[in-house]
Amino acid sequence: MKKNPLHLNLLAIAALALTATQVIAQPSPLQVIAQQPPGSGSDSMTRAWAECTSRQTGLASVVMNRPGANGILAINYLKGQPADGANVMSIGMSQMTITPFVHRQMPYDPLKDFDGIAVIGTSPLVLTVPAGMGIQKLADLSKLAQSQNGGLNFGSPGKGSPAHLLTTALAEAMKWPATHVPFVGEAAGLNALMGHHIQAMTLVIGTAATQVQAGKLVPLAVFSSERSALMPDVPTIAEAGGPSVLARPAWIAIVAKKGTPPDVVARLNEATNKCRNDSTYANRMGAMNVTLVSSKPGDVAAYAERDIAVWKPLIDKLGLATE
């Protein structure tokens, strides 16, 4: 029997429509932008969050590293994407409260360019020196800085990072002659520190703990108002003889481009808060000494405003802003 051409055309149209519906019903993976290199503490936290939210939402995720310029390259990439919820970014206290203000022409506005999704957690920072230098406390480092030609060479994961600002402010308060040596990410600076190419570096405590336990680093002070359970014998910055204003723990958050649909933001915020009860995620973050927090989307801006009020005057006082 001869088939009706019209019938064949209708079948073809129906098949195409079904295929299109199937394509639309399969959402693209969520692209999570990490602003530090693979292997860094920030990268590890980002991947833990991406994997947990995938479990909570059923939406696949892909982590893409865009390191450089202490987060500015990653931020520029995010700003260049559509505000459709397909791209989000992990961002730290550094990028939200310090980095834009160490440039005379702000490369971005942390309070206007992003929609906050959630604050993931907080983690203290610790000042460290290489083992084998004979330095056991902050006063010993002060003597070294005062005695050697050129003063102290200290590293950081990049200009405008919390490590940079905290150590610079400490050197200023302690009247140390000091030179800042920026690296692209914490891992590169850590290698230089353990190789004795620099004399000191402020690290995320989870990064420092492994090398302290291995006998390769000596911790001198925790930049917090309380001692860390991970290093209970290490004094706070105030106990060590430094200024208490520098007791500022680092924090990490997830943001999207400004204008992202509110339902996407709400869904990812809900998933983040549920992750606090996910044992795999909680154990993984706990191993990095991250204290998980419950948060609303608006808390990202609130955290930023709180710390900008501390860091911005300090940046201006120390004259850290450059072209």
UniProtKB/TrEMBL annotation:
The keyword Cytoplasm does not apply. Pfam families: TctC. InterPro entries: BUG (IPR005064), Bug_dom1 (IPR042100). Keywords: Receptor, Signal. Residues 1-25 form the signal peptide. SUPFAM superfamilies: Periplasmic binding protein-like II (SSF53850). The keyword Signal applies. Coiled coil: none annotated. Belongs to the UPF0065 (bug) family. PANTHER family: BLR1237 PROTEIN, TRICARBOXYLATE-BINDING PROTEIN. This is Tripartite-type tricarboxylate transporter receptor subunit TctC. It comes from Hydrogenophaga laconesensis.
